[in-house]
Design brief:
This protein has 85 residues and is an all-alpha fold. The protein is built from 3 helices and no strands. The protein has helices spanning 3-13, 25-45, 56-84.
Length: 85
């Protein structure tokens, strides 16, 4: 197992509290981006994701569209990397 997985299981089985004094700037940056993205979505759709009344099929379609976009970004990045070499 990786060190992080091993550490996770060690902490999970420990009775002592996990030390949380350290702050991971990478995690904080991602949290900030999620919060900003949430605000954009609320402004665009007029509701939170939690309060959305869309059905399961609609969420699957949204996910599919996002994943399709992700593959396009991957393809573009691969092309850029190949052209750089």
């Amino acid at each position: 197992m990786s060190d992080s997985v091993t550490k996770y299981f060690e902490n999970a089985s420990s009775s002592s509290p996990i030390e949380t004094e350290q702050v991971d700037s990478i995690v904080q940056n991602v949290i900030r981006k999620y919060n900003n993205r949430s605000k954009v979505g609320i402004n665009k759709y007029g509701t939170t994701l939690e309060e959305s009344k869309e059905d399961t099929i609609a969420f699957i379609r949204h996910l599919q569209e996002e994943m399709m976009d992700a593959t396009l970004y991957c393809e573009k990045l691969l092309k850029l990397m190949n052209n750089a070499n």
